[in-house]
Amino acid sequence: MSEARFPTGGVESGGVHVVVDASLRTVTLARPAKRNALNAAMLNGLREAFGSQPSDEERVAVIRAEGPVFCAGSTSPSELEAARSRSNRCCTPSGPTRCRWSRP
After folding, report:
1. Which pLDDT tens digit goes with each residue over 2-11?
2. What does pTM read for this prediction?
């Protein structure tokens, strides 16, 4: 998932699956065996999922999870902190989902 845009067919990276279909971007946490607990790979996957400005057609992003638990937290706080320290401008203390994009 190294490209900035995600094809309609979807892309998976680090336990995060992304599908863009017209105006809807669906991001799925995909580690149900670990109760979708965040690790560095998932944080990087989320960063990539929200790392570029959406196209003009995209209007809504939905974050969902596989399995009965949305997210059990993090597997290793120190691992997540190390991943955050390597982050781009889109990884805020609240995570990469708090990005603000301006529309022309």
Report:
1. 333 444 456 7
2. 0.67
